[in-house]
């Protein structure tokens, strides 16, 4: 325990006197299934996306186990193709894209804005059910024989494989609209429902990050929609647009796909940046260094991300001139990203650092993201990428961003807002052990992949030459440690809900609006509409009493 | 950026965007202009201006689109943020167009560069050109 | 929601034939509700622009690749019918704009009339479209009954593209133009049908007196959707019927 020692206090016996929170104000299945409350929808998203994370993680462990032996241990080649595709599709479309905005964002964004709810609550619920429908399509596709195209659905293979690509295509189309509606809702909410006095430059940076993310969700996702729709039409009717045998062009598919999927990388990572921005300041008890720079760099990243998608296609046969342009523009992404990284480090510097578990996850993020980001710059260089394309180097790079940065930021945010969401506190010692396991396991998994990738190990292969065996074995052991770490995290978080050890009203001493309402929040968030008079992250205004008052 | 305008205090926009009622005369004038431009579209298509054909056709269509957007869709009288949000979709769409079509248009140049520089290139067909001639 | 104690603003009805509107309780004012919904709808329209934009990008991409195919293909379409349909859609956009105006000025009968005329325009458009499709199907340029037929990967012969009169014989991949034509106009046609459905839904609400000067938000939004359908056709017409 580094900061506060919460008094061990069990639930009071008098249930009648229990304060009404969003969790217990109404009961029964329909009060959740038909809810318009952003916190309940966020919670349902949290459960759904976490389930997808665990499923996707299980597929990842199967892949790693299979690769223990050079000849493969568990599957034949076709099955292996399915398993890594399932890992990719579950993680990308069902977990990483919705997890932070739709689960944590839904929960926190209106609270931080001082609003009763998001601007369009029914659309919010619709978005959740679209997510559920998309997930059902994904499961149906597995039942109908699976799909083996990789999460990228590259044509012409995806047009001819005798598997359930049509079903998963529909699933992705529907998930796309779920994502669009969340983004649309957040943009409107930020514009129209900010509390009086909450000017743009008083908004917490999590909101700025979600706002930039939302722009990407709204403007990029429709192109994914039309792309998977065209693949579905192509499979049914053979119109020929993406089919080289019929005069079409597979490179056009890649253009469309990456026009979405490159910005989608930032749909995934920008909310993670937002969480980290929040957490470094709260747990360092120091205003953010470079607040405006971080805010604007989110928007800059959002815009630049639309200009660089061709760097995924350096070996696809696009024009050399296009490749020059894309490679050149790719380097520009590094500027706003580095601004963020430096600002976070500068925020921690000489802060009053509390090594709470969310902060440990945050520090792990700062290290891992530096590696993930810098290897991205390496891959953005045209000549280097030709050699590293489709090797484990690329796999390791994007896992440093997707798993090491985004999932870790998600865990950090989860630990940070867990007491706010449920009014209970998990076991901090367990949390720190789990964070260490995840950090060590993650690096042990992916550092060997950098090495073997740079030595030519291609991705997506079910077998490999024995020279790579030590790296694969190390990677598999790391993945197991990582798996144990995540499983342990799930365990103590669930235990915390059962033990009901009270969290503090303001567990970490945050000064953004979500801490100004009782913990956990009542149904409509604030008993009276908050008026913002402070500048953002002004810790001199913190009421220290709230950090030692147990939540009711 | 006027913050006071944008938050709860959008009341300043009460006149602009919220309840602007256009006159029937304006709508009818726009309709006549649109029908007239449709005739122009068909008329110019009867002549061949070479490479400018596409530009002319798209130019006229853009004028028509602008009329629909500004007047039928009331964008002219709408709030700044609504204008920005809708019009930015065209900006981002143009990015898709520019890069994708620039790739398509420069691939043939690519092919020539290969045939000149690589000695064995006469034997080799660049993958991008496989589709175009058969 | 049971929390009406918060505060609920009610916009009164301007006359006995109209109904008052209760502002959703998480909004402070009617203006805030109106602006929020409208901003959301503009963003939705932006997604529609990008969705169709993908199809337009595909059009330009293959127009660059197979210019002759597109020129010859375009000549197979009847520009008179396409032009007629353009005029029908432009007129229906005008009736829709007038319908929104009628709602803004609390003219219930006029609103119903203009909405009815707009739906009529949509119907005429789809009927003309149907006859166009049928003619192309009869000429083997895309045979609807054979669309699901798969194709012989060895010969590349498409069952849906038989080109009975051999009009596309001299150009490479003659089916590409018609593939793009059917996809674009098909997805556009789907939007016409959805739009007409929404306008009919508006008419039901209008008949009950829900829309008036104080509250006409749904009419406004459906109107915007309908204009977008028109907007897309404005580009489709010259690109497909008068291939430059």
Structure characterization notes:
The complex is a heterotrimer of chains A (552), B (134) and C (244). Chain A is built from 15 helices and no strands. Chain A has 552 residues and is mainly alpha-helical. The two termini of chain A are 22 Å apart. With 134 residues, chain B is an all-alpha fold. In chain B, helix 2 packs antiparallel against helix 3. Chain B is built from 4 helices and no strands. A two-stranded antiparallel ribbon of chain C has the order 1-2. In chain C, helix 1 packs across helix 2 (67-76), helix 2 crosses helix 5 and helix 3 (79-104) runs antiparallel to helix 4. Mean pLDDT of chain C is 91; it is low at 1-5. The A-C interface holds A 36, 115-117, 119-121, 123, 180, 184-185, 187-188, 191-193, 218-223, 225-227, 230, 233, 236-241, 245-249, 252, 255-256, 523-524 and C 1, 3, 6, 24-26, 32, 35-37, 39-40, 43-44, 46-48, 50-55, 57-58, 61-62, 65-66, 147-148, 150-151, 153, 156, 158, 160, 172-173, 175-176, 179-180, 182-183.
């Amino acid at each position: 325990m580094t900061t506060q020692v919460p008094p061990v206090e069990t639930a009071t016996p008098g249930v009648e006197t229990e304060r009404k929170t969003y969790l217990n104000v109404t009961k029964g299945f329909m009060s959740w299934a038909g809810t318009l409350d952003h916190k309940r929808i966020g919670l349902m998203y949290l459960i759904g996306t976490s389930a997808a994370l665990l499923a996707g993680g299980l597929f990842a462990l199967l892949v790693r186990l299979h690769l223990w032996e050079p000849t493969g241990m568990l599957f034949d080649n076709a099955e292996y193709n399915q398993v890594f595709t399932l890992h990719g599709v579950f993680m990308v479309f069902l977990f990483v894209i919705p997890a932070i905005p739709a689960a944590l964002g839904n929960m926190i964004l209106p609270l931080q804005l001082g609003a009763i709810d998001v601007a369009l609550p029914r659309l919010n619920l619709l978005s959740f059910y679209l997510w559920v429908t998309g997930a059902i399509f994904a499961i149906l596709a597995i039942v109908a024989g699976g799909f083996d195209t990789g999460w990228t659905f590259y044509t012409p293979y995806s047009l001819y494989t005798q598997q359930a690509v049509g079903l998963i295509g529909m699933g992705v189309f529907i998930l796309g609209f779920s994502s669009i509606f969340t983004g649309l809702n957040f943009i409107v909410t930020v514009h129209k429902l900010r509390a009086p006095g909450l000017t743009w430059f008083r908004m917490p940076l999590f909101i700025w990050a979600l706002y930039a993310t939302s722009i990407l969700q709204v403007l990029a996702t429709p192109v994914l929609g039309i792309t998977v729709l065209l693949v579905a039409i192509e499979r049914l009717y053979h119109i020929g647009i993406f089919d080289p045998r019929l005069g079409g062009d597979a490179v056009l598919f890649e253009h469309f796909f990456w026009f979405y999927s490159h910005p989608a990388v930032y749909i995934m990572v920008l909310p993670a940046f937002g969480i980290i921005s929040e957490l470094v300041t709260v747990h360092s008890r120091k205003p953010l260094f470079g607040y405006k720079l971080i805010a604007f760099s989110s928007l800059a990243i959002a815009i630049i991300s639309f200009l660089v998608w061709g760097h995924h296609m350096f070996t696809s046969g696009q024009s050399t001139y296009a490749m020059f342009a894309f490679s050149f523009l790719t380097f520009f992404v590094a500027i706003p990203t580095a601004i963020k990284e430096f600002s976070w480090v500068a925020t921690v510097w000489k802060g009053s650092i509390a090594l709470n578990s969310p902060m440990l996850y945050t520090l792990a993020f700062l290290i891992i993201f530096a590696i993930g980001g810098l290897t991205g710059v390496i891959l953005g260089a045209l000549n280097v990428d030709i050699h590293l394309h489709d090797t484990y180097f690329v796999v390791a790079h994007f896992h440093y961003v997707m798993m090491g940065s985004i999932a870790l930021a998600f865990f950090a945010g989860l630990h940070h807002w867990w007491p706010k969401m449920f009014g209970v506190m998990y076991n901090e010692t367990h949390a720190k052990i789990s964070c260490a396991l995840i950090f060590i396991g993650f690096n042990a998994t992916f550092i060997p992949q950098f090495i073997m990738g740079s030595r030519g190990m291609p991705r997506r292969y079910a077998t490999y030459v024995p020279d790579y065996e030590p790296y694969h074995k190390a990677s598999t052991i790391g993945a197991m440690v990582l798996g144990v770490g995540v499983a342990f995290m799930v365990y103590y978080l669930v235990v915390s809900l059962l033990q009901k050890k009270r969290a503090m009203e303001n567990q970490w001493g945050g000064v953004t609006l979500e801490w100004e309402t009782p913990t956990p929040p009542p149904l409509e968030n604030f008993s009276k509409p908050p008026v913002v008079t402070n500048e953002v992250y002004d810790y001199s205004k913190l009421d220290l009493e709230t950090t030692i008052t147990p939540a009711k | 950026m006027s913050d006071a305008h944008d938050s709860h205090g959008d009341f300043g926009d009460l006149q602009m965007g919220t309840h602007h009622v256009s006159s029937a005369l304006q709508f009818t004038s726009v309709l006549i202009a649109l029908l007239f431009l449709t005739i122009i579209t068909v008329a110019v298509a009867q002549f061949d201006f070479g490479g400018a054909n596409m530009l002319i056709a798209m130019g006229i269509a853009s004028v028509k689109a602008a009329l629909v957007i500004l007047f039928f869709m009331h964008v002219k009288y709408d709030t700044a943020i609504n204008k920005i949000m809708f019009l930015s979709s065209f900006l981002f769409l143009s990015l898709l167009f520019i890069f994708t079509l620039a790739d398509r248009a420069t691939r043939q140049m690519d092919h020539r560069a290969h045939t000149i520089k690589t000695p064995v290139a006469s034997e080799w067909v660049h993958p991008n050109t496989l589709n175009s001639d058969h | 929601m049971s929390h009406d104690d918060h505060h609920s603003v009610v916009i009164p009805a301007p006359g006995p034939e109209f109904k008052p509107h209760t502002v959703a309780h998480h909004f402070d004012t009617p203006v805030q509700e109106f602006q929020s919904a409208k901003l959301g709808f503009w963003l939705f329209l932006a997604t529609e622009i990008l969705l169709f934009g993908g199809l337009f990008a595909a059009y330009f991409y293959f127009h660059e690749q197979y210019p002759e195919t597109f020129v010859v293909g375009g000549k197979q379409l009847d520009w008179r019918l396409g032009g007629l349909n353009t005029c029908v859609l432009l007129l229906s956009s005008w009736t829709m704009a007038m319908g929104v105006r009628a709602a803004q000025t609390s003219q219930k009968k006029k609103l119903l009339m203009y909405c009815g005329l707009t739906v009529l325009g949509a119907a005429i458009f789809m009927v003309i479209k149907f006859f166009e499709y049928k003619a192309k199907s009869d000429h083997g340029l895309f045979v609807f009954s054979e669309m699901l037929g798969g194709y012989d990967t060895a010969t590349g012969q498409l069952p849906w593209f038989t080109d009975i009169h051999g009009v596309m014989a001299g150009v490479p991949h003659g089916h590409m133009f018609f593939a793009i034509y059917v996809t674009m106009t098909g997805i556009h046609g789907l939007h016409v049908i959805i739009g007409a459905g929404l306008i009919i839904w508006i008419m039901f609400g209008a008949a009950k007196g829900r829309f008036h000067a104080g509250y006409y938000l749904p009419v406004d939004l459906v109107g915007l959707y309908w204009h977008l359908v028109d907007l897309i056709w404005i580009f489709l017409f010259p690109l497909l019927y008068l291939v430059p």
